[in-house]
What does this fold into?
Amino acid sequence: MSIETNKSLVQHYITEVINTGQIGLIDAYWVSEEAAAHVRRELSMLCQAFPDLHCVVEQQIAEGDAVVTRWSMAGTQSGPFYGISPTGRTAHWDGVAISRLAEGKFTEDWVLPDKLAIMQQLGAIPLPGASPLPPVPSNS
It folds into this structure.
């Protein structure tokens, strides 16, 4: 596959799977069922925590079978996220994914999100030199 085709595949995956939360479409993008299962677990958790999740491709660089994508994401936390109860807060974060593709499918994907930014925006980790965010009132 050409470099441009690989870049387009990554962009399409983000648009069709991540931005719509259609987890069932993951298998069509992955060579290995084992890898697809791992991605499905991670993305399911993320989409449950941030049901309005939206990802934007900021930049892509590709060479051979590898595509590096710099992206930004945003979502409102209305489900649990790594032990953090729903806060109703919106978080914005950046990240990089290094994807390897073969014959129009992902073979590997290393995703490096800025989890510190997410945790700070959700109030789990205070910003340096700042007062901690006030707790979110419970609905009970």
